[in-house]
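dumping these here so i dont lose them again. two proteins, back to back, each one seq then structure tokens. dont judge the mess
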Amino acid sequence: MAEKKGKEEKITCPVGTFFTDIEKAFGRNSPFYKHMTRSKIEFLKGVKSLLDERIERLEKNNSKKTGAKMTKVKVE
């Protein structure tokens, strides 16, 4: 199989693209751009809360599964 070397697939973040497009359309000094820039923090905090909740749920489920597999065995 022949493969082209040096060709990389570019994947862009839709959120980053959104903010870049806003900057291009309105400029950095517009009130809208400034407001949207401040909203990035809230957006990221929202994503963080989703991740924290998912991690907590996975840890909780994992501890239940490992506890259920243990059996006390009497050795004589």
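---- next one ----
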Amino acid sequence: MLAGTFYAAGPASASSTTNLTLWQNYGTEQNAVATTNLVAAFEKLNPNISIKIVAQPGTNYFQLLQSAAVSGNGPDLAVMWTGIYDLQYSSYLVNLKGNVPAADLAKMEGLQWEAPNFNASKGAYVMPLETQFYIGFYNKKLFAKAGIKTVPTDWTQLLADCKLLKAIGVQPMVYGNGGQAISTEFYPWYDMSYLMIGAHTLVNWKGLYDGAIPWTSSANVTQLKNWATLQKLGYTNSDVLTNTANIQQFEKGKAAMMVDGTWDTQQYTSTMGTNVAAFVPPYSVTPIKGVVEYPGDGFSVTKYSKNKAAAFKFLDFLTTNQAGGIINKAGLIPDIKGLTTTNPVNQEMLNFVTKDHMTAYPMMDNYIQVNVGNAADKVLPAVLANQQTPLSALQNMSQAWKQLPAAQRSKSGFVG
């Protein structure tokens, strides 16, 4: 079915226009660009539907959504994180099953991560916007200058490469908040996801959810100790907790590596050209075998929307090749099966799975209970800064897990 065939509509008068509101918390990231362009294309195909985009702050976005749900005066469409996030807020979201054609839903990758109990047969609460990676970026010119011929694949190689970079006066790794609205500190889950990939198989990650693997396990403590060594040895910037210019510092060659996400790939390739490339953060004693590939966010329809049919029509549009092309043009990776990316660095990320056969892991912050994640947000950055011990930080996370309702610590499956 061609993208325009199903959605095209004849001229409509203002009186017959259906008005929708869409909330997003993307700030100025490429996701915001994609959202604006998707809405414009959809409105062109459907002149009887108008979508007003409202940019909300990232710091309290979910609190605002919850307040809107209570009053019933919030948006028709809302950006929603996937995994445990959409399951936690599912009481005011409408399941896509039966509202978006099953054949169109089947085009999307990773719908299990938006489904009750992570079971795609039960439907999904979010239409993914893109396939995302938490990933490492490195400066090829600086690597070559330091005599580094291949990217590191484990802790030993990473520390050795950092030593070589520091010896030529280059900051090996840079951390900071990247201009994000979420926090004034760096977001720890990019790194924490890889710390846990290096410690546990994907099958065993469920043990971090249900308590079979305590957060204070020796494997977790060791991984955080290795991580903190980076800053202790001077392989990161000293101001990891307060730096807000890390992206610019990386782009200008002030640092050789940083850990970020695909939403910034387009910016790096635009400013650094072929000098930037992707690598899997090697936070593992043995060569790293996993990579974070995940539909991290998308759009949901709220239960209190008075125009659900029009809202689901927009979500259905996101399954088309036309929408995929718009997403790709914004520098993102379409989540639609069979579509590719034209950004070479994004393609490197996809190759980690398709060619190197690495195991695809979800984003850990979308996988564990929200309260545990909130507790971790407060302590993990201080671990890298060597202002809090790994064990004490993990004890805080463990305490948050113990305080969860029993249903959220279920051994029989993920709650949703």
